[in-house]
Amino acid sequence: AQIRYTIPEELTRGAFVGNIAKDLGTDVAKLAAANLQVLSDSDSQYFSVNVNTGVIMVSERIDREQLCGQNARCFLHLKLAIENPVEFYRIEVEILDINDNPPEFPSEEVSLRIYELASLGARFPIQPAQDPDVGTNTLQTYHLSANENFNLNVKARTDGGKFPELVLERALDRELRAFHHLILTAEDGGSPPKSSKMRITIQVLDANDNHPVFDRPSYGARLVENSPLGTLVVKLNATDVDEGPNGDIRYSLSSHNSAALRQIFAIDEQTGEIRVQGNLDFEEATVYEIEVEAKDMGSPTMEEHCSVVVEITDVNDNAPEVILTSFSSSLSEDAPLGTVVAVIHVRDRDSGEQGKVQCHVSPDLPFQLRKDYEHQYSLLTSTRLDREHVAYYNITVSASDLGSPPLSRHTILPIALADVNDNAPQFEQASYEVLVAENNPVGSVLVTVSAVDPDSEQNSRLSYSILRAGGTDPGLDPTRYLSIHPTSGQVTTKLPFDYEQTTYLQFHVEVSDGGSPALRNRTLVHVFIADQNDNAPRVHFPRAGEDSATQLRISPSTAPPALITKVVAIDADSGRNAWLSYHLVEATDPGLFSVALRSGEIRITRALQETDASAHELLVVVRDAGEPPLSTAVTLVVLVEERGPEALQGSEAQGADGGGLPTITLYLIVSLVLISTVSLVALAVLGVRCL
Fold first, then answer.
1. What confidence tens digit (pLDDT) does each residue in 348-386 have?
2. Which ranges carry the Cadherin domain (predicted)?
3. Which of 70, 137, 288, 399 would be a feasible disulfide site paired with 310, CB 3.0-4.6 Å?
4. Which long-range contacts (CB under 8 A, 24 or more apart) does 193-199 make?
């Protein structure tokens, strides 16, 4: 037979289960005598039988959840063995569940990470609580703490399990609330019910749903031009309420900015500092408007724009500029006063007083500046120009602004004066005097005349020519004897001079320049011909043929110092070359006759004697004082005879021939008187004209 008992779990030891003797209808004493034994199918002995009373009792703690888990019904099976006779009885004990276990979550706290852009209705499963009890004592329901965004949905499975789910009912916004803290309560159906709680922390994951925001829509800054590189312009500040990469901001210059502006300004992408990296020039731009964008690092990125207006303050950093609108680097030296040489335009890229320009040139120059109107000047001649005095001018035009300190710029205008043929050639000497020896070689340089012309180029190219001097002998043409090189001025001889024919020659040398019309000048050249000893003395008396001697007769009674004869000679040369001396070189009796050194008179020096020869041959040499000296010899034969008249004839002949000398002297005296008279008349006429 099989006996069934039903007891709740967790009974204390010794708790009554059932009376086996009563239930079997057997006497208790008989059970005790039959050696009753209780055998269990499990390893543990949960029950025992009191053989004296026949009562089955709980001997160990019974945990239904441990024995049967989640089975709806839980049974423990026992066997009763009785001897004499042997009998077996099956006892089935059903263990009833009691609500001794609350629902338990796997952990006390769970964290969820939910994207803030999650769509409404999205479900987020939560690990369920476990309750080992069964029936109504097991987990029955969940409760969620009040909140604005989530509802609880409990999903029941076919096996009876219940799984909680969070359902998004209202959109999340991390920027408003980054964390949500919820309490999920699991409750069973016991009486009283048991429950447990689990904290749910929901971290709202950021979505790049917010763009960066500048703290100001626009920024302004003011800088001085030529600010040093690296100067801070402005520090931008943009914020993004997103987090992580979505809130990490990078600054950059917008692509709307020009390439030139990008070369002037740079921005730090991390800090947003805009600094100067190029040259700031007020004259190029007075205001810069920089477009800046701030981007986050989300995906996709979001950006915001702002503008930075940078005003540039002018400083006096630009020197004036001098621009030649019109300029002639060559100017004729005879240009009239007020001739415009250059038109000058000046400008200064600075502004205000710093952009006003004043110009001036040195007052020591023959030029002046005339202000035509604002920013334009004309450079004019102020005095007469003379290329021969100053041929080249470097005119420094100084332009200064009115800044503080003022800046200036100097421009040099080179002006060359073009020559005008306004200067006649000038000889280095007003006249030239030349002394030349007669018999000069043909082609020898007589004199070199030199003239200068302060003009230039063609106007200074000189040409020389020989002209007859006024008042000279018409028959004495200087070009017959002389020629002149047209460019060097060298006067050379074409014929040798002969002092005995011409002792003096004068002529004009004319020089003309190459200008148009040509200018001319003259100089007078006096040529004095120096005598050379080129003529030997010539004996005029006594006359004798070539290779013959002249015979003279004297009386034996001729007493000393009687004049026997006189040798008369002349020399066509002049000066020392015509100083003659007479020498008795040979004589039959050297002591009988003598010759006067200068007069050539031959006298007897002693009385004739009978022993003396009747004929005496005398060799008389006439020598001049030239170097080397030239001489002529004459042979006289003196016959001693008693024929006086012949001796007298010699004396008379001497007188006759000697008469030629007074005639020559007379000619010289007459010429001197005439020359003196003409000179006095000329001086008188000149004096009258001066008065």
1. 888 888 888 889 999 999 999 999 888 899 999 999 998
2. 6-105, 106-214, 215-322, 323-427, 428-539, 546-664
3. 288
4. 193/99, 193/140, 194/99, 194/101, 194/102, 194/103, 195/102, 195/103, 196/102, 196/103, 196/104, 196/105, 196/129, 197/105, 198/105, 198/107, 198/108, 198/109, 198/110, 198/126, 198/129, 199/108, 199/109, 199/110
